[in-house]
Amino acid sequence: MKYLLVTSDTHLRTRINKLLPHACRTIGNVDDAIAAMEKAPKNEHMVVIIDEKLKKGTQMELLHALAARKTAGSIIQLFSPEEHHQEQNPALLGSVVLLAKPFCDSEFRTAMRMAESDGRLRIHESDIAQEAQPAYHTNLIGSSFRMQEVREKIRIVSAENCPVHIYGETGTGKELAVRMIHELSVPNGPFVAENCSLLEGPLAETTLFGHEKGAYTGADKDRDGLVSRANGGILFLDEVETLPLSTQAKMLRLLESGEYSPLGSSETKRSSFRLLTASNESLEAMEQENRVRKDFRFRLSGYPIFMPPLREHPEDIPELIACFQHRMHDARPFTDESLRLLLQFDWPGNVRQLFSVINRGRIRCGRTASEIALRESDFLLGSET
């Protein structure tokens, strides 16, 4: 695999060159857009890594130039979240991986794998004018087969318009998976989310469908619900099994025809959205416990995705630790005993608990300690969260 790195940041260049696989062969390391165009071969596949910091030209100008030239290959676009705006996004050139800075080693390697796997695609100028291929984000960390499988399912289902149900234990990254589906979906419309455990009785219906003025005491004006706001985009219902059974029944008409009526109104309205749902258990298990209606389950289970618990892919723990430490700007090593505890623990709270335990030990040791030494009490407290 060939690559071209375009950045004027010398520290970033050194770090990326160290992270690149040994199988990669460099075309060049350049610091401006003009030199990049001179180096990039027109008909030879490669991965182009483009930073925001360039001496001559801008990142956007280079992206457009590569597209106009119909350069073969993939692009990794580095950006700072606080400076990145949708109007600056090339949106996007066939095969583009967005990687936010600062990034940890595992995030960069994941981005490289994505770029290489999609490298057979060609870049076309026409893709710039429309919001064609949305960005890949590498939120779901892990090189294990289980996590690669999850990311591949997300990539596949993002191109479809079917309902998706994501289930798995708490702390496994269900909401990250939902966000990734939204970011990869075309068109990338509004994202409206609600935790169903907060909705009880009439509150569930008015929150979802909205209400008409005078529908109940205190309804002093018309109000649009989540369904209306999600039109043209995605409606995400977390802990969907806690939605009242009566509200599940009223959702059936909406999911079948796209039609609904606000509370207190006889008017029929329409909304076209994609429904994503999440729960800690499978829909089948919750149906057997009478928490989900059978007909409602059929509407939700267009494409189920299971988020594996951390104990089923413990080989990802070192990557997760490195990623968390990088985000916290704390590169101190762990003691051998701490690493043993981290790798052998069962992690009932999964990735969320892992980060909590690491952070607790990091804070307790203080900034003056040269290494982080975890205690068993850190894990006991973490398992209660």
Kindly identify the CATH topology of the largest domain.
Rossmann fold
Number of domain modules: 3
Question: What is the averaged pLDDT score?
Answer: 81
Q: What gyration radius follows from the Cα positions, in whole Å?
A: 24 Å
Side by side, the strands of the main sheet go: 2-1-3-4-5
How many beta-strand segments?
Answer: 12
**Main CATH class of the largest domain:** Alpha Beta
The ordered string of helix (H) and strand (E) elements is: EHEHEHEEHHEHEHHEHEEEHHEHHHH
Query: In the CATH hierarchy, what is the superfamily of the largest domain?
Result: P-loop containing nucleotide triphosphate hydrolases
Largest beta-sheet characterization: 5 strands, parallel
Provide the low-confidence segments as ranges.
84-94, 119-137
| C-alpha termini separation | 44 Å
Named at the architecture level, the CATH assignment of the largest domain is 3-Layer(aba) Sandwich
**Computed structural class:** alpha/beta
Number of helices: 15
- What portion of residues belong to β-strands? 5-15%
- The shape, in one word, is globular
Helix content: 25-40%
